[in-house]
TrEMBL record:
This is Aminoglycoside phosphotransferase family protein. PANTHER family: AMINOGLYCOSIDE PHOSPHOTRANSFERASE DOMAIN-CONTAINING PROTEIN-RELATED (PTHR21310:SF40), AMINOGLYCOSIDE PHOSPHOTRANSFERASE-RELATED-RELATED (PTHR21310). It is an enzyme of class 2 (transferase). Its EC number is 2.7.1.-. InterPro entries: AGP_Transferase, Aminoglycoside_PTrfase, Kinase-like_dom_sf. Gene3D superfamilies: 3.90.1200.10. Pfam families: APH (PF01636). The keyword Transferase applies. GO terms for molecular function: transferase activity. The keyword Transferase applies. Keywords: Transferase. Residues 47-199 form the Aminoglycoside phosphotransferase domain.
Length: 256
């Protein structure tokens, strides 16, 4: 079946675009089709199941033949990108907040998410590596480590995307057309998704909360803690996979 579908969908395509590629997985775009190649099929299992369960728009699964998952491209443009100013309107950010709320109100997925104890262990490992590697000054690492501690508290689990960065949210005329990259989905803290969405775009937090709803038990210290925790954990992975961690470093430096 796959050998018949690919030519029909890609016969007029003149180039292949490498979207991202590293040791774990790669994504390439061929026309209006994204091909995700992942050596760990557990991540793909989570992605496919999470998209099927999510009450918000997601890419259409065209076919799957391990290790490849074929997804239809979404219309529109990304809400924003870390390290770059967002040109999206306040209404677009509010719509992203409303989509997050719909997801968080949905039934929990059957698989577990990370616990505070697990995250604390990962945070300790990340900070230890940052200090010994010299990527960041020790004082900056420890300062953000203290900020991050506020996130390591019990929470009521909800259905989280797990990597709800602005680059994964697509809109057309301020309306959500879909959310991509669900491999980290599971049970987690609602504030983590909101913090991830506004990472590097702190000026849009109020817009997101307008769409999300005012009845959330919001603690700005926890939002800031997730900004620090996510950035501290991400930098080692980015460096080891030869990506530029400058946007995450900027987030850490900007923390009060």
């Amino acid at each position: 079946m796959t050998s018949r579908i690919i030519p029909a969908m890609m016969g007029d395509v003149k180039k292949v675009e490498v979207v991202v590629a590293h040791h774990d997985c790669a994504t390439v775009r061929v026309g209006d089709v994204f091909l995700k190649i992942d050596a760990d099929q557990r991540r793909t299992d989570v992605e496919v199941q999470a998209m099927a369960m999510a009450p918000i728009p997601t890419p259409e699964v065209l076919w799957r033949k391990p290790p490849v998952l074929a997804l239809a491209a979404l219309s529109g443009t990304a809400l924003g990108r870390l390290g770059e100013p967002s040109t999206a309107s306040p209404a677009a950010w509010a719509d992203a907040g409303a989509a997050a709320r719909m997801l968080h109100d949905a039934p929990l997925p059957p698989w577990p998410g990370r616990s505070p104890d697990e995250l604390e262990s990962q945070l300790d490992d990340a900070c230890g590596w940052l200090v010994t590697s010299g990527v960041l000054p020790t004082t900056e690492v420890m300062r953000n480590r203290r900020i991050a501690e506020a996130a390591l508290r019990p929470w009521t689990p909800v259905f989280v995307h797990g990597d709800l960065q602005a680059a994964h949210v697509f809109l057309d005329k301020d309306e959500i057309t879909g959310v991509i990259d669900w491999t980290e989905a599971g049970r987690g803290d609602a504030l983590f998704d909101l913090a991830t969405l506004t990472l590097g775009h702190q000026e849009h937090l109020n817009d997101v909360l307008t769409g999300y709803g005012s009845d959330i038990d919001l603690d700005l210290d926890v939002i800031r803690a997730w900004w620090s925790l996510r950035s501290l954990r991400a930098i080692r992975w980015l460096v080891e996979h030869r990506f530029d961690p400058a946007p995450e470093v900027a987030v850490l430096n900007s923390q009060p």
